[in-house]
Specification:
2 copies of one chain form a homodimer. Chain A is globular and about 55 Å long. In chain A, helix 5 packs across helix 8. A 3-stranded antiparallel beta sheet of chain A has the order 1-3-2. By secondary structure, chain A is mainly alpha-helical. Chain A contains 11 helices and 3 strands, in the order ααβααββααααααα. Chain A has 2 domains: about 1-80, Winged helix-like DNA-binding domain superfamily/Winged helix DNA-binding domain (Arc Repressor Mutant, subunit A), CATH 1.10.10.10; about 85-215, Four Helix Bundle (Hemerythrin (Met), subunit A) (Up-down Bundle). At the A-B interface, helix 4, helix 5 and helix 8 of A face helix 4, helix 5 and helix 8 of B. Chain A binds a DNA duplex (30 and 30 nucleotides) through helix 4.
Chain lengths: ~240, ~240
DNA sequence: AATATTAATATTGTATACAAAATTGCTGCT
DNA sequence: AGCAGCAATTTTGTATACAATATTAATATT
């Protein structure tokens, strides 16, 4: 809702509109304001953002390529519901990449960057205190992404961004209420290791951190759209 | 050309057409039949594939998101010319991911998979012997992708696929003629390590393998479109 | 003769209109 | 009353038409 207002009131005509709308939808999904399974009708979206369906389709295509939404032919778009396998693969990927990046980050880390990260961690804690769960979830993802960016490798940073977005979906489906992904406490401790340039310890810490998040999930291979019924009733 | 014929003659109407066309263009880029910098006019492509511009645009969007083509506003699409920084980041990413995957691959490897990989390596050698450079380039990329798939992690396998596609572009820009990316000889030796289940040795070998490819490039930050002139003449 | 301004052309960006497909609700038949 | 077939509605898929913008060429002026 906020995003909508923003892009309508600011008189951005043309070039940046699409990017704004993309962010609005993307944020809504990452912040769990749009939950997995939610349908995203083209007409409705076009209406809300006062844009034609052509533009919305382009944006949905992009979101689909990033696996945040799923497009079923003749059925339309909906927020992706990650499978248990997806969850495992994504967290394994994060283990490999985010941990592997820690030594580089520790090497590139300067005082300014450490301060920036601390500020982010602080905002995250604040959001949690204020009960703004949605915001906290996104800030937590932002922290991990910013960390990856500090490695200096844009390609891997982009990949981590995608993984974090999808992790947010996983949390929405398999997460336990009240128990968010990251303990912001953890983030502060991680910054200390990085600041000291201790890449190896940061790596180990990140590994535990991710394992903690993953093991906090209750991954029960529950609902698939249709083949469900056959299994549920013993037919 | 072949791809075009294929999708025109087979009476695939509707759903699979787009995927076919996507592959045709994608292959043409990866195989260097479309070189970096080549313009991809929407009208021309729509004409060639006898489809409307709408469909072509969708495909170009996708290719742009995968960084195989670059879309400049009001200027259109062209095959991406990776920068030297891109090249570095991509090969660093491959080091991290592909090497990190080797232990998993070694663990999952069965006789059937080893045979399949050997067959691919053999085809690659054959293509090289026959002077079919384009085919060899793609087969080499295919080998690396298949390897990643054997790890069982789809997410990372997809990422490796993207990295390999972009690596092909890098080879087109910075590669020395006659000196292709992978020595197919290398691939066979790698399979042996994997077959023995020696993940660590495979990892080390892959690392050397990728380093060899990267160091075979002549990365000279040559041509940027416009700011060139100022630097060339000592103004 | 050189440059600046303007017009023409080519190409992309956007919206709308039409066609195809699938789901949903209704009606009639058993 | 229940099921099957059919029609109507909803929603996506595709193409075409129009508008905006950038590039190129030509002309006029200094």
């Amino acid at each position: 809702m906020q995003g909508v207002q923003q892009s309508q009131t600011t008189g951005k005509q043309g070039k940046y509109r699409h990017e704004d709308i993309y962010r609005s939808i993307s944020d809504a999904i990452i912040e769990h304001r749009l939950k997995p399974g939610a349908r995203l009708r083209e007409d409705a979206l076009a209406d809300v953002f006062s844009i034609s369906r052509t533009g919305i389709r382009k944006i949905l295509q992009r979101l689909a390529l990033e696996q945040l939404v799923t497009i079923t032919p003749h059925r339309g778009a909906s927020v992706t519901r990650p499978s248990a396998d997806d969850a495992k693969d994504i967290f394994d990927a994060r283990q490999l990449v985010e941990c592997g990046l820690m030594p580089d980050v520790a090497r590139c880390m300067r005082a300014a960057e450490a301060a920036e990260l601390r500020e982010m961690a602080s905002q995250e804690r604040q959001a949690l205190r204020d009960g703004q769960q949605s915001t906290a979830i996104r800030l937590s993802a932002d922290f991990h992404v910013r960390l990856a960016q500090l490695s200096g490798n844009e390609v891997l940073a982009d990949f981590v961004e995608r993984l974090c977005s999808r992790s947010s979906l996983i949390l929405a489906v398999y997460g336990n209420p009240g128990h968010l992904g990251c303990e912001s406490h953890d983030h502060d401790e991680l910054i200390r290791f990085l600041e000291k340039g201790d890449g190896e310890r940061a790596k180990a810490f990140m590994s535990r951190h991710l394992k903690t998040i993953e093991s906090s999930l209750s991954i029960v291979e529950d609902d698939n759209s249709t083949p469900d019924l056959r299994q549920v009733f013993g037919v």
